[in-house]
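User: We ran a pulldown and think these components assemble together. Before we commit to crystallization trials, I'd like a predicted model of the whole complex to look at. Sequences follow.
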Amino acid sequence: MSVTSLPRTREVDRVAPSATPLIDRVLQGALLVSFLASLYLAFIYAPTEAVQGDVQRIFYFHVPMAWLAYLSFFVVFLGSIVYLWKRDQRWDIYARCSAEIGVLFTTLVLITGSLWGRPIWGTWWTWDARLTSTLILWAVYVVYLMLRSYSSDPARGARYGAILGIIGFADVPIVQMSVVWWRTLHPAPVIQLEGGGGMPPQMLVALMVSLVAFTLLYAYLMRQRVQIEQLRSEIQQLEESEG
Amino acid sequence: MSQVSALLWKDLVLEFRTRELLGGMALFSLLVLLVFNFAFDLRVDNLAGVAPGVLWVAFTFAGVLGLGRSFVAEKDRGALDGLLLAPIDRGAIYLAKLIANVIFMGIVEAVCLPVFTAFFNYGSISLDILVIALLGTIGFSAIGTLFSAMTTNLRARDVMLPLLVFPICVPVVIAAVEATALAFSGGLAGNQLRWIALLAAFDLIFGILCFAIFEFVVEE
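Assistant: Here's a predicted model for the assembly, 463 residues in total across the polymer chains.
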């Protein structure tokens, strides 16, 4: 007799399997809607840019990703401060998960920026202020993730990560400023990036919707990732108390 | 303050007995100059653009070498625990290490800079340069001392320290190189002041921040 044909008589089988909590389902729905809307707006609704052509449409995803990166690292900063202050492991989990998402999106920003740059500037990379400081930001948080992995003791890893999370983020404005000054003194060839002056309202709408979509994505990814991390730490605690 | 000077004196005496770290750092900085000579083939026309960067790469690479060793002595035989148990402020430990590192890096720079001016027949030793070197060294060491204390306990410690220090210290490197370039070429004083101000601001902000945060590194 195959297992699947056995009558389901156990109590646990009659109760519904753990349903996805309401907020996750709302997030999923909102994500679906906002990304579909954002795709439509970015590719169809928004007018084609005069100088750059259709390649410019990558802007509607590139900019929100950059926003997401900074948001993630700000959350790392907050989480790090609260963790050092309260020693509540949840805040360390928030910080670490946000750093992972932040590194992911910073990498995507660099890649999409390159993809955008190649047809427009004729080069994959240029050392202008914004790219340079984004690259440095990326490096700092990749090192953050390495620091967390290389700490043999998780409590120590959390503490060290928190310290780097604070110092790294405090450094961000100073890095930006120094890189901008450096570029002002040694100007690179003039590059026209995304719409300097007035953006037509349709473009603005597409950008805003995309921004909302990506922010929802951040919230969703954070929830999933934090859940996994909390389960993992629960398992670890159980293992330790067993031993 | 007497705590700081006592700790500082200990570190200085330890190092000056053997001088092995200082010798190694100084020689390494000269080797970096040597390698850069081959890397860039520094003929006169390239020189002004490249030379300040070469100098600061030599300083920072030798500096990282020294920083990596700053807490190794304490790791041996639980010396750090001894320090932590003694009735001294944690911040005093950081300050003493910071000043020691600045002194060591300063000595290496004092050796490297004259050799640099001789090797490349470029650059000069002026008050400007001394100020820039000092401010840059303080900023670099402030970050480096904190992270050195952190990495002493990590698995891949020699790898992690440069990875931690260099991205955070980018403003120091940019400002120091730009200011040095202007000092060597006698450029606009206004611009040079801007970079020196940035160095001073970095030193102040991160000096205080690292000083405050240090106790979280060494707590157990």
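The CA atoms of residues 189 and 236 of chain A lie 54 Å apart. That may be worth checking against your pulldown data before setting up trials.

User: Thanks, that helps.
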